[in-house]
Specification:
Length: 130
């Protein structure tokens, strides 16, 4: 499969997302609950003039039926980039699978898996392109 490359606009958004994650981790460090990181991360996104929605419910269509309680995205940035936030000691492969499935089901191409419970935030950021 040959997909179009990430656009300049998507790259600009991606850089701002990574920058926001660095700012939050620099200020708070590891060891807090995920919801604390989420609210601070979204504040940093807003400071960078990015729109976002938190805890976005995405209906699932299965067997011809739409189920509203299907999927919840932690943060959707600029209606195009999914950010799945974690504050865990160990990043399990299922977290990557979860984000990939979210990208597929929503038709989005770019996502970030961000774990704030790391000594160095660079170790906690994983970028996925579908």
């Amino acid at each position: 499969m040959n997909h179009a490359p990430i656009s300049d606009e998507e790259e600009r958004i991606a850089k701002a997302i990574v920058d926001a994650a660095y700012a939050v981790h620099r200020a708070l460090g590891p060891g807090l609950l995920e919801n604390v990181y989420e609210v601070c991360f979204c504040h940093e996104l807003a400071k960078r003039s990015l729109s976002y929605r938190r805890q976005v419910v995405v209906p699932i269509v299965y067997d011809g039926i739409t189920f509203d309680e299907g999927l919840r995205l932690d943060v959707l940035v600029e209606e195009g980039v999914i950010c799945e936030l974690k504050a865990v000691e160990v990043m399990h492969p299922v977290f990557t699978a979860q984000l990939l499935t979210q990208l597929k089901l929503t038709g989005k191409r770019l996502g970030f898996l961000i774990n704030f419970n790391v000594p160095v935030i660079k170790q906690g950021i994983k970028r996925l392109v579908l």
